[in-house]
Structure prediction request, 323 residues.
Amino acid sequence: MQATINTTVDTSRYAKCIETSKRIRWEIERDVIRGRRFDFAKPFLPDGLSLVSQLEFLNEPEQRLLSQIQGRTYANIFGLVERFIGAKVLEVSREHWLGDQTALEALVRFTDEELKHQEMFRRLDEMMSEDMPAGYTAVAEPNAVASVVLSKSTWAVLGLTCHIELFTQLHYRSSIDHEQHIDALWKDVFLFHWREESQHAVLDEMEWKREDAKLTSEQRDRAVDELIELVGAVDGILQAQAQADAHYFLSVCGRPFSAEQAAHIGDTVLKAYRWQYILSGVQDERFAAIIGELVSEAQGARIAQALAPIAQAAAPAPPAIAA
Ligand SMILES: [Fe+2]
Ligand SMILES: [Fe+2]
Prediction:
């Protein structure tokens, strides 16, 4: 808890990120899409993320359709969070403008990659929209969300960002589960995205700790509250999106469901979204270790308490963030 943190820029760690970033650099069309279309005979998200198999009253094509709707939301949610992540990293890079040029280059590459990811997810959404029935809605607008997020302290935004970039690793691991037979293009999206996100997570950790070292304990205490507010805002978006997606599913599925079944579909989609975008990151061991170094026991307990209602309703286990 609150160990003394060295604020000196570790040039070699930034240099390693640049080296890896150059080696694994990929292009949207050339490496990821490669002229392919989505195969609607396959699920888009692995079951470990979509949780559709928990809806036993849905037949296989129906479970697949619900997974595909969640795939479209995946593209939209990442397009959304990457808007504020790119802007914040560009802002943080200012502190290296006239300082360590290696750190600056690493953050510029990070921002460039995040712009590319947004373009990729926009492109994927367009492709899906061409082959899916009309009526899908993305409830949140990237710039509106970014304005709210960026009004919070840098500590809180970097904390949320670090959490997001770490959970892409778990998403990739779920996608290569041998039991899963998801669409080949989606498999590549998980793979290529995760490759660049791994470097981003390393940079987030360094910048978050650097920012943390500048704060007084009062400022950090306020920043912890802001991080809690941001997670609450993410949850608000997920609740609205889950409702919209369940509604879309019911309208295009082609058969009626009882009120109880319809409610169960909505609840399961929300549970899946909370797992995908909040709890899979909170439970990440590396994230728990990083935030555990920065916050006090009482602050960790406050975060855990705020997450409890979200975790209660979601799979598969309660979060372990408190000291
Ligand atoms: Fe990304
Ligand atoms: Fe990223």
About this structure: Residues 85, 114, 165, 197, 200 surround fe (ii) ion (ligand 2) (CB under 6 Å).
